[in-house]
Amino acid sequence: MIPAPGGEEGVARRQGRPLGRRIRDALTMFLVTGLSLVLLVYVGYGEGKRTYGEFQVEKIAAQAGIVRNSMEAFLRQGLPMRQYPGFATLAGPIVDTDDVAGMIAYDPAGREVFRNIDRTSPEIPTPSGLDRITGDQTTTMQTDDYYQTIMPLRGRFETRGSLVVTSWTSVVRNHLRGAFEPLLLVALALSAGFAVLVTLAGPRLAQARVPWLQIGYALAFLAMASFVIGTLVSLYAEGVQGKARALANALGQRVGEILEFKLSLRDFEGIDRAFAEYQRLNPDISAAALLVDDRVLIDTSEGKVGKPWISDPGTYEYVLPVGKTNSEATVSIAIAVPHEIVFRQVMRSVKNFAALFVASAFLAGLFLQVAASLQNAGGQASRKSGGAPLMRSDEELALGVVKPLFFIAVFVENMTYSFLPQWMQQVAGAAGLSAGFASAPFMAYYLFFALSLIPSGHFAQNFGPRALMHGGLVLAGLGLFALVLPVGFWGVVAARGIAGVGQGMLFIGVQSYILATASPARRTQANGIIVFGFQGGMISGMAIGSLLVTYMDPGGVFMLAGLLGCLTALYGVTVVPAEPARTSRPEPLGSTLRRLFQDISCVLRNGQFMQTMLLIGIPAKAALTGVITFALPLLLIRQHYKQEDIGQIIMLYAIGVVVASRYVARFVDRTGRTAHVLAFGAAVSGLGMIAVGMSEANPLFDGILSGALPTLVVTTSVIVIGIAHGCVNAPVVTHIADLELARKIGVNSTTAAYRFLERLGHIAGPIITGQLFLLLGTSPSVVTWFGAATSASAALFLMCGNPQNKEPRGLGEAA
Description:
815 residues, alpha+beta, Growth Hormone, Chain: A, 4-stranded antiparallel sheet
């Protein structure tokens, strides 16, 4: 998970470290761990704000239900709302609480009829759309200052108006701030303790076979997560109990009116139906009961009437005395809310923390390696005066510090992917365009990414790669920044094109820099950095971006991602050393293009090459961009998945690719069976897409598992697609490199032509999916047809009789 910095040489250097270096080591560990733990606290705060805010709104709605019930009883008699006499009497005590800013009643046209406003509050805004309210569904709108709960007022046959109760968001914010601010101190203390421990025991930890550094980081993260989860449990329990009290008060008010007139409860018909209706409108209630001297007179649960009230240890209960009968028996209302509500909300937080842990582990491991490279380089520099410089140390420094450039670039791009497709659809709709145009920004990104590769390669060869890396990061950041501006749909398309150029420049720059810096024996690290950056950046970006967009709007994520890209460019300018001087003569761009077109002309006339590209390579890349990053978020949001769930599901794809690539590469290197592996990977990815497409409207999912089983099918299918693509990404390059064509025109020329033409899949994926959405609607059947075509291509590839490699070459996987 987190690589330990250094090795045996690093241990020897650290044993005699001066005090200054030890302090720098401790600060590095403190910053890396502290950022992870503070991010965990922030995510926990966002989780608490969202869920506790929901409990607060439901509590206020239950309190306002007293006024609503009374007004609806009046309106059902056919009387006009303006003649209702009790609004001020009922609303006053509720508005006088610290939670409520005001309560206003509106007629069907949205005109104000009654109001009761807290004297300390400014003018409360009128919600939009009050004249279009129908049915009895309560809705909530949120602004920076208020929660506004809109409750329709029903007459006998139709909606007669609405009741809007406004509560302060500051009540929730201040309560959470008091709960979470101490956790920041805990995060800092844990980070400091971890940093001191690792710094003092660093040499011993590095010598041990047990990965103590990784274990220590995991323990610090889990300890912080335990504090956050404990805080959330306390908050959620408090919120549930407050809601139970409010529900009991609202129901007790209705029963209390009967007791005030000294009437017998048994003389009234329909009280049991009122309790059942109350439970229907508040599904979190597990039981609502009317008690007379602790014996059950009415209960929404079967078999309890006439028996003593027995508390259930698995519920939060609130028993409210509401008065006495003529015989002086005590009448009470009992409301029970199951602990499962808190458990369910906490488990959602735990799931999000687990995803955050994976993302943080990648980030922490990356920057710990960078810190180790800088420290090792510093120690080496102090000894250069005594002898010749150790070139291996310079090489390690260059390889180590360049890793974050590509990683962060992929990271910031994938921070947006869990919500970008639906955001693009909204932008297209605002411009008066059909939803099918939402694929155009994706196409622009991948098109300009591909078009930038050749000029970038020429620039790197003639002028060096460092300017490409730094300029690419700046363009990628500016492309994300531009999405915040009111540039319109075609401005968004242009911004995505700019981001694609930046990412293409960076990709070529990083690749060229590593190949120019690394010795021939260490060239494989070039591929390793690209693989780690692409898959690790995708995993971390999806996890963190999908969490952050829940707590800040998409514009906030765009701004944060753009800022990270520009700051990383500044890091590159400051830290990345110059590559060795070039010894080759500059080549004109025209010569580069002529050679590329000659190679492409040769490969396009080769049947085996075209079979591999058209039946395996392009479909795999089209599935990545068209299904995983474009269609899947749209389908999942249509099925009411939350943003963080979407990001985490897509994150599983990248994890599947990483896991499969490691083992499949070894199998291919050992056996050379590339054709069978490629056909297997393509066929299985198609089956996975078919399963995703069938997960929404399958009759097998009806019943008890109607919620859990489709989610299980989707997540499993996405993992399977990732594993299947892991069987394609690396072996396909090996397969291409061992064709007879590669022996004629050269391995580098063949693989370079393939990598360039393979980008057609990136471009075609969103276009094909977008057009299918136009023809078939935003339906899972689009993914089903996509998967069926992919599996059919795999079968056709295998039937074409592609040769197996005799001496496989482990070229590895690129982005």
